[in-house]
UniProtKB/TrEMBL annotation:
Keyword Ion transport among record annotations: no
Keyword flag Cell membrane: no
Alphabetical UniProt keywords: Ribonucleoprotein, Ribosomal protein
Chain's gene name: rps6e
Protein name according to UniProt: Small ribosomal subunit protein eS6
Family of the protein in this entry: Belongs to the eukaryotic ribosomal protein eS6 family.
Length: 131
């Protein structure tokens, strides 16, 4: 079964939360692509909606939104993109990236909160009580 680390960014507070999605919860992410929305209950955020913004596979290769499907592909990059930062003007390089679709090979998924629930994020995750 698939399991993912899901890094959820909160645009209002600027905080990021690293959560786990195992087995059935991980299946909610399978087949989704970058830019699609997922129910937050998959990672314990009931009532929230998350948008998939990126991710990486086991080897650290980034998901690239220009590549269709879940497979690896070598892409010729000539400007700054996810996974490539040119060192000088005009530099081009062929970089191996994974497609934009979530599959078993993905180890980390990056997501952002799009719609909020009635309960605060810290309360749902049990954080902020350590005083």
């Amino acid at each position: 079964m698939a399991s993912f680390t899901v890094v959820v960014g909160d645009p209002d507070s600027g905080m990021a939360y690293q959560l786990e999605a195992d087995e059935q919860d991980a299946n909610r992410f399978m087949g989704k692509e970058i830019g699609e929305e997922v129910d937050g209950s998959a990672v314990g955020l009931d009532g929230y909606t998350l948008e998939i913004t990126g991710g990486s596979d086991d080897a650290g290769r980034p998901l690239n939104e220009t590549v269709a499907g879940p497979n690896l592909e070598e892409v010729l990059m000539n400007e700054r993109q996810t996974g490539y930062k040119p060192r000088r003007d005009g530099e081009r390089r062929r970089i191996t990236v994974r497609g934009r679709e979530i599959s078993d090979a993905v180890a980390q998924i990056n997501a952002s909160i799009v719609e909020r629930g009635s309960t605060d994020v810290e309360e749902l995750l049990g954080e902020g009580d350590d005083e």
